[in-house]
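To whoever picks this up:

The parser on our side crashed when reading a file containing two proteins. I've narrowed it down to the boundary between the first structure block and the second sequence. Both blocks are reproduced below exactly, byte for byte. First block:
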Amino acid sequence: MTNTIADIETSDLILVVGSNTTENHPVLSSFIKRAVLNDKKLYVIDPRKVTIADHANKWLRPSPGTDIAWINGMMHIIIKEGLQDKDFIENRTENFEALKETVEKYTPEYVEAITGINADDLISVAREFAKTRVASIVYCMGITQHTCGTDNVKSLANLSMLCGHLGKPGGGVNPLRGQNNVQGACDMGGLPNVFTAYQLVSNDDARTNYEKAWNTTGMSATPGLPVTEMIQKAYEGELKSLYIIGENPLVSDPDLNHVRKALANLDFFVVQDIFQTETTRIAEVVLKAACFAEKDGTFSNTERRVQRVRKAVEAPGKAKQDWKILCEIAKRMGYEMPYENSEAIFKEIAAVTPSYKGITWERIDKIGLHWPCPDETHPGTPILHTAQFTRGRGLFHAIEHTPPAELPDEKYPYILTTGRVLYHYHTGTMTMKTDGLNMLSPECFVEISSGDAQNLGLDTGSMVDVSSRRGKISAKLKVSPKAVDGTIFIPFHFAGAAANELTNAALDPTAKIPEFKVCAIKIEPATV
């Protein structure tokens, strides 16, 4: 996030895009709802009428996979009516003319034909967004999990820069991280092409610094594979062994039939986790890890705040902390990693990570700090880009709408989009061990509009078969006011009727994220 969670309440206008905030980020959604109670404006743009839309001044419904078109449409309106922040554009950005030329054709009528958003509604929201003193954009995986996900994010940045809503309290472009400490994992180099703080492995200076810190030589300048490409390489036989930590791809990855074949093709498969999962069951070796409450360390949350985590209980049985497992494996492979404890590891993190350099164990004893924090006298950076962007001037990207990789047709007439429900987390590894949560959300469901259900001659509780070009599942139908004709929602938590049997593994070419949010399906009464 460019701004903080609490900062959202100070926005005059909040634009929630591709986020079922109330169910997926219930704590953060309370900040948005409080802002509304204090007469702040809320606009929600999402293919489903998600619960947060009940609090909105207006809900706009785009067809899944058409976000670039409506964002370009808003920018077309803002520029045409001269509502853009001319001073911000002049002093802090570049490439505006290319953006202006690109969005010229995205008239409200043209955008309505692509997205289904009413032209007058788009005009009113665009005007409000541009005219307000400060506006915050909040988005989640409804924006990123597309083959054009990277371009979706760039488009939202374009919109915020156009109106000068960056680098100030109450503004910003604010992604909501989908899992605990995923921000911290990325900060620590949990990506195939970077070291900590997003220093490229191809950068000679960065490699030299790490070789010195780690007393080694010859570190590769070639990026590794993203997880989605690892699966494909395993399927093709090029990747022979795989070590998974805290992930359950046999429920969470797209096109599960393909994933099963890929993992079965491995020569050696290791999984490190805190509970038994669908994935641990097929591993040659399972390493028992400690959970968050059984270890010391830090989390970096969605607002870039680095916070202490303290051990509350002992780990059961032979479960070990993740870092101890990794250090023991490194030792057996001939490289000593003799850390004394988590604090010693964090000292190294600060030493080799520019954005964490000023963060110490003592400074975050009670309250966390926002990175970047370049030295120990620095107070941290709650709001990014206050004076300039990382690259200097903000770069407008001229981006055209591109359709999803798979669209409905005569054989598969519905669009499937997937996501989460309030009561379960990811693949249910932890939440489905809780009886109360299982009572509230016991099984998978197929959310459908009343119009589509009527056309199919089905109703809530009917068992249906849902099929795509990749697989088939059976689950109960749920007629819901959240659903819109033509679009079906299925939560991906439930292994017994895994939505990812159906989803498309087509990837965003830059981020390599699968298109979980759009694929073509058909629905039929379940065969006995």
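<<boundary where parser fails>>
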Amino acid sequence: MFESLSDRLSGIFDKLTGRGALSENDVNEALREIRRALIEADVALPIVRSFTDKVRHRAVGAEVVKSVTPGQMVVKIVHDQLVEMLGEEGQPIDLNAPAPVAIMMVGLQGSGKTTTTAKIARRFTQRDKRKVLMASLDTRRPAAQEQLKILGEQNDVDTLPIIEGQGPVEIANRAMSAAKLGGYDVVLLDTAGRIHIDEPLMVEMAEVKAAANPHEIILVADSLTGQDAVNLAQNFDERVGITGIALTRMDGDGRGGAALSMQAVTGKPVKLIGTGEKSDALEDFHPKRIADRILGMGDIVSLVEKAAEAIDAEQAAKMAKKMQKGHFDLEDLAEQLKQMEKLGGMSGMMGMLPGVGKMKKQIDAAGLDDKMFKRQIAIIQSMTPTERKKPDLLKASRKKRIASGSGVEVAEVNKLLKMHRQMADMMKKMGKGKGMLGKLMGGMGGGMPDVDPKQLEEMAKSGQMPSGVDLPKGLPGGMPGLGGPGLPPGMPGLPGLGGPKMPGLPGMGKGKKR
């Protein structure tokens, strides 16, 4: 979402940080570039003016002039102002109210409202252990109620039975009654949307609000619509009174202006962001972390949290025991590749690592995309169980069969086998408790310890992760690479992106350069 803006700002800051001293003209020139970058990103003009004025006020003062590293100080000021513009602290959906807590979902048709409702319900059920009831109040869009019912079945969340002929207010009253009788903690009311804002829509929203008395009213807005999303938020807030915003399609290639402007213009916090089509592709909105991503500082905290949720601790413990004995077959490699996919694939993980944005051209040239994981998994799945356990059996005829079965060239099979061989050799050398892997093994299977987000954020801002930091040892890494001298033991690994001894993925060499 913020790739273009991030690239622009990175270029501006590289010029600043490369100078020993900064004059007022240098700062003004940089601010003009920042102003252009924000306007091109579709940030609201009043917000751009306010942002650059605040940065200029601080950047031309003694705070920067007397600084040992004035360029870095300007970057910090811009970071702080970005955080302020985005809303200082993240505000999750508030459930601190007498049960059942009613949450009303509003928005235009096509913004992803029903899908987001199901994602929130899934999160409350699985992560927060709440008993959730979903109810569709959309009697206008064909099959809208059936859609929510199917999403409920897919995510093991209860939905209110559909009764033909009932209006939105009747359904809302029935949902609240059913929730009280059924002992539900949360009721999610998925209201009807329109192609555009109209008077009947607003009247309907007001009637549902009066009937259900919701604790939260969440506006679901498509982040790709730019400033229209900001105008939409203002209109809904004036007529209905929203308490927060959920932005969908944040994984798209939009310019990001809606996300940057929304809180500053409306005064309502962005609470959630949708990062994909899957039911678990929903994240809390953390202003500091978003600012870090925009400025290329990475988002180690979110990466750690995502890893803690995605990785199966029991599976990790089994893997740890095998690795300690020096065993690492192709089944294990396939499991590691699947874990990488759960963490958002190559692009998802790389985008959260400090300084990786500047390596984008090299990474693109190496062909490291998410399809690579799928190809490699397909190759392994085309093998027999015996071949996966004993790769030495794979001679020319078998390789040809596997290549044909997985739709790749024999050279791709050879690359995968070479990568596996390098990793297996390293496991044998390091599996006896020496070095990074030994430290990693000590914590695997022991659960996810408490991680201090502030400590992680400070390390991310510094652009490196010191190896001596004893952080999430419970994270099953397994794939060597990320976890060498620059990152703490236990971080999930990317082959070829670690220390000098780490093997590389095809196209990335031996991983000697970070």
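After patching the parser it read the second block fine. Residues 410-430 form the longest helix (21 residues). Residues 302-461 form a domain with the 434 Repressor (Amino-terminal Domain) fold (CATH 1.10.260.30).
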